[in-house]
Amino acid sequence: MAVERLHLPFRLHMHMPPAAQTRLFGILAWCALLLGPLLSWMLVFAFTSDDQCGSWDLRCTGQAILCTATCWLFGSLSAIAALFRHEPHDTAVPALGLNLVALAGLIGAIVLISKFG
Question: Which keywords belong to this entry (predicted)?
């Protein structure tokens, strides 16, 4: 009886509707795409003192850009996980494409700046 109560919270996912149960990684990918850059820029500039960041210091901007790239990489991996889990393609495929396009654009900009900078 005690064992049955212990496993009860782990069975709560069985009571979710199928649509909500199967779109978890697709929604995570969209959140990483849309909210990741906003949160990373806010966190970097909120937790760094003004004497280090000043007015858009290069160090803080670089940290924010790397955090944004990490979010987009996480979003791409979440979308790939959604596809492997056979989640609906209408959520996972656009999120994967947009995360990869954003990540490729950022990498392209870094290569362009390093080549001509």
Answer: Membrane, Transmembrane, Transmembrane helix
Coil, strand or helix: which one is 58?
A: helix
Q: What are phi and psi of 41, to 5 degrees?
A: -65, -40
Q: Give domain status of residue 31, yes or no.
A: yes
Tell me, yes or no, whether 2 lies in a domain: no
Q: In 3D, which of 112, 110, 105, 78 has the Cα closest to residue 92?
A: 78
Whose tokens are 């080549």? That residue is 115
Helix, strand or coil for residue 23?
A: coil
pLDDT tens for 33-78 read 999 999 999 988 888 887 877 667 788 888 889 999 999 999 999 9
User: Rounded to whole angstroms, how far apart are CA atoms 70 and 116?
Assistant: 25
Vertex 33 angle, CA 27 and 34, to 5°:
90
